[in-house]
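User: Run a structure prediction on this.
Assistant: Running it now.
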Amino acid sequence: VQLQASGGGFVQAGGSLNLSCAVSGLTYGSNIMGWFRQAPGKEREFVGGFRWGASDTDDYADSVKGRFAISRDNAKRTGYLQMNSLKPEDTAVYYCAAGRRLWVPQRPQEYSYWGHGTLVTVSS
């Protein structure tokens, strides 16, 4: 399973960015996708996640609820993270990850496959 994340960049506070993550390879090995971020000097933290084909499983970290939204294109096996009302504290490298679980885990250790990160910088 390979993941390719894209869409990061530089934005002013209050702005928006949309990240995408395309999954390829043996996709039957993964039924969940998670979005994580890691700021300098901090641990990697859960941002949001979902199970493919189950829209009622979307989960978000409290810090992004109401500002970030997950979506997916099941046919293209691509997940999206729409980030609105961005704050300087959202600055981090964002990663997408895949795994196979019956739920959407928030621990990075539950995910087997990781894409290269994409940098999001929010200026004040």
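The mean pLDDT is 94.
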